[in-house]
Amino acid sequence: MIMGLDQLAPGRSARVVRVTAAEALRRRLAEMGVIRGTHVRMERVAPFGDPLEIRLRGYRLSLRIEEARMVTVEAR
Predict the structure, then answer these.
(1) Domain ranges of the chain
(2) Distance between CA atoms of residues 7 and 74, nearest Å
(3) Residue 55 CA to chain centroid, in angstroms?
(4) What is the per-residue pLDDT for 48?
(5) What DSSP string describes 11-46?
(6) Residue-wise pLDDT tens digits, 19-70
(7) Nearest to 41 by CA among 56, 61, 22
(8) Which helix (H) or strand (E) covers residue 54, if one does?
């Protein structure tokens, strides 16, 4: 199932399909390891939905919901 990273439920895993952000944000996400083919797991969502915490490449990363919407993932 293809969806935005912001739609991934806590505890679910997915693979990054594409990042459709502006160049500066795309570069920043790539530097943090959010690139095509990377496996991510949604760890938790803050009480009001922002920020999101994901696990990838052995560490946890917090993203704003606007940033997560620009990452397309394929849920497993």
Answers:
(1) 2-75
(2) 11
(3) 9
(4) 84
(5) T-EEEEEEE-S-HHHHHHHHHTT--TT-EEEEEEE-
(6) 998 999 999 999 999 999 999 999 999 988 789 999 999 999 999 999 999 9
(7) 56
(8) strand 52-56
- Token pair for 55: 């696990």
CATH architecture of the domain with residue range 2-75: Roll (2.30)
**How much is the pLDDT for 62?**
95
Cα 48 from chain centroid (whole Å): 17
Q: CA nearest 25: which of 60, 58, 70?
A: 70
AA letter at 29: L
- Give the SS3 label for residue 62: strand
**Nearest residue to 38 via CA among 2, 3, 71:** 71
